[in-house]
TrEMBL record:
Signal peptide range: none
Family: Belongs to the class-I pyridine nucleotide-disulfide oxidoreductase family.
Keyword list, A-Z: Disulfide bond, FAD, Flavoprotein, NADP, Oxidoreductase, Redox-active center
Keyword Secreted recorded: no
Protein name per the record: FAD-dependent oxidoreductase
Names of required cofactors: FAD
Superkingdom per UniProt: Bacteria
Alphabetized Gene3D superfamilies for the sequence: 3.30.390.30, FAD/NAD(P)-binding domain
Domain named Pyridine nucleotide-disulphide oxidoreductase dimerisation: residues: 346-452
InterPro entries: FAD/NAD-bd_sf (IPR036188), FAD/NAD-binding_dom (IPR023753), FAD/NAD-linked_Rdtase_dimer_sf (IPR016156), Pyr_nuc-diS_OxRdtase (IPR001100), Pyr_nucl-diS_OxRdtase_dimer (IPR004099), Pyr_OxRdtase_I_AS (IPR012999)
Length: 458
């Protein structure tokens, strides 16, 4: 068997790993990256995550704006958006491949890696003999995969986010199990394309960590798109009849109902992708939920092995995997000061129509934490930019500490929320007061200038 030697082995072509590889190569290290599938060069985000979904979300908003009536027209619009998504993904996958494979200091190997010992990994490949890699340092960046709860029955209409992205026909009826990030984004997107969407959530409401006014506004906006929600409900059985999947659903009160769908999407969370790694042969410990256990500098219990991205328990976002890279870089070549604990205010965005983005504490959380809270909330009907764009649904809301004037959190629901939230997170990280955002000069007409009026309310 062939044996390769490396200073650094990166298992998985994820965001953190693909950024770490050229950095280490530039330091003169011999770097090997192993990716199990040629369809995954660039990792989840590029191929089956952020990029294809947001491309379709955009395509769906264009389709909705055209006001199609006939289902055949909606189907054509979906197929056009689907092709555009495929082209974008294939372009980015190629670019990602070339950035790594074309780098003189990196060797990209396509095959599945499993540990043989703490310093050794075997890579099995489809068309050639397996190889062994011996590496001084190993970085595990294998991501996460959809978690599918066991549901009784047998249906050929079950999908997860990955398999659904491969379906190029618009379903008339879709059932989505789970109302987290993936459930809500797919619900909004397919409703915009013209699919009848029903979301079944075991919890009593969506976005359960948000304030009641925020939850209510998001639910209402999605319902206005045509999404139906069944909360406190569980799918007990799914079977196929001649033309549809039939879901048997039971709610908390014990009432049952049945629902027909052409497609059933499981959006019930993602679990660590470690099944093929044989971690026990390297002595790497995992948490109760199966994520690779790391300290705040992302080192596992085996000192020369690190874990980056979703596989270390997250949070599961591309920008967190990228920040994991920064922490590792800082410990290998910097002053060793970085840690997961120093991430101050991490913003998130759910790409529904319109976008919901948040950072920091909710009003309720801030009050519970003992702050004297002031709340600013501005409907987007007050924004000239939103009026120009004819996108006045939603509001910007911010929670401020009365004593210091510092911003404790924000929930932005509406046009450009996913952009403006980054400005608020920056203001929070740099400990600016709400007055400083209120009195800043912003371009006009822009959504950012909404912050002048939002904070003027206080
Ligand atoms: C539908 C969807 C939409 C999303 N949208 C967003 C979004 O809008 N914004 C956002 O920030 N995040 C989003 N996410 C989350 C984001 O995609 C992930 O957090 C991020 O991609 C995780 O990257 P990673 O670095 O952990 O590794 P990944 O990108 O998951 O890469 C892991 C790689 O390892 C490979 N691999 C696994 N096991 C082995 C092995 N044994 N040997 C070799 N290779 C292996 C896999 O094939 C894969 O390519 C979304 C996720 C999904 C599923
Ligand atoms: N825009 C973004 O940044 C973005 C987009 C998509 C995904 N992601 C990342 O991917 C992760 C995974 O997304 P996700 O939506 O799969 O997970 P999630 O954890 O966000 O949501 C899962 C939802 O499914 C519900 N659920 C679980 N089991 C159920 C069952 N049996 N019946 C009914 N409901 C059930 C849960 O109560 C929860 O509401 C996210 O947490 C996020 O980190 C991010």
């Amino acid at each position: 068997m062939i044996t390769q030697e490396a200073d650094a082995l990166i298992i998985g072509f994820g965001k953190g790993g693909k950024t770490l590889a050229p950095f280490l190569a530039k330091q003169g290290w011999r770097v090997i990256v192993v990716e199990q599938s040629p369809a995954m060069y660039g990792g989840t985000c590029i191929n089956i995550g952020c990029i294809p979904t947001k491309s379709l979300v955009h395509g769906a908003e264009i389709a909705a704006s055209r006001g199609y009536v006939e289902f055949a027209e909606k189907e054509r619009a979906f197929e056009e958006a689907w092709r555009t998504k495929e082209e974008l993904v294939s372009f980015l996958r190629g670019k990602n491949h070339d950035n790594v494979a074309g780098h003189p200091g990196i060797r990209l190997i396509t095959g599945q890696a499993s540990f043989v010992s703490p310093h050794e990994v075997i890579v099995t490949m489809q068309e050639s003999e397996a190889i062994t890699i011996r590496a001084d340092r190993i970085f595990i960046n294998t991501g996460a995969v959809p978690a599918m709860p066991a549901v009784e029955g047998d249906s050929r209409r079950l999908y997860n986010s990955t398999t659904l992205l491969g379906l190029n026909k618009l379903p008339r009826r879709m059932a989505i199990i789970g109302s987290g990030f993936i459930g809500l984004e797919f619900a909004s997107m397919y409703a915009n394309f013209g699919t009848e969407v029903t979301v079944i959530e075991r919890g009593p409401e969506l976005l359960k960590r948000e304030d009641a006014d925020v939850r209510e506004a998001v639910r209402q906006a999605l319902e206005a798109l045509g999404v139906r929600f069944l909360f406190s409900s569980r799918v007990e059985r799914i079977r196929d009849d001649a033309s549809a999947a039939v879901l048997s659903i039971r709610d908390e009160a014990g009432d049952s109902r049945s629902l027909e769908a052409d497609v059933v999407l499981f959006a019930t969370g993602r679990q660590p992708n470690t099944a093929s790694l044989a971690l026990e042969r390297a002595g790497v410990r995992v948490t109760e939920k199966g994520f690779i256990a790391v300290d705040d500098t992302l080192r596992t219990n085996v000192p020369h092995i690190w874990a980056i991205g979703d596989v270390n328990g997250g949070p599961q976002f591309t920008y967190i995997s990228l920040d994991d890279y920064r922490i590792i870089r800082n410990h290998l070549f910097g002053d060793g000061s970085r840690s997961r604990q120093d991430r101050l205010h991490v913003p998130t965005s759910v790409f529904i129509t319109p976008v919901f983005a948040k950072v920091g504490m909710t009003e309720e959380e801030a009050a519970k934490a003992g702050f004297r809270v002031k709340v600013a909330k501005l409907p987007l009907t007050a924004s000239p930019r939103a009026r120009i764009l004819r996108q006045t649904t939603g509001f910007y809301k911010a929670v401020v500490d009365e004593e210091t004037g510092r911003i404790l959190g924000a929930a932005l629901f509406g046009e450009e929320a996913g952009e403006i939230i980054n400005a608020i997170a920056l203001a929070m990280d740099t400990e600016q007061t709400h007055e400083s955002l209120r009195d800043r000069i912003y371009t006009h007409p822009s959504m950012t200038e909404t912050l002048n009026d939002l904070f003027a309310q206080l």
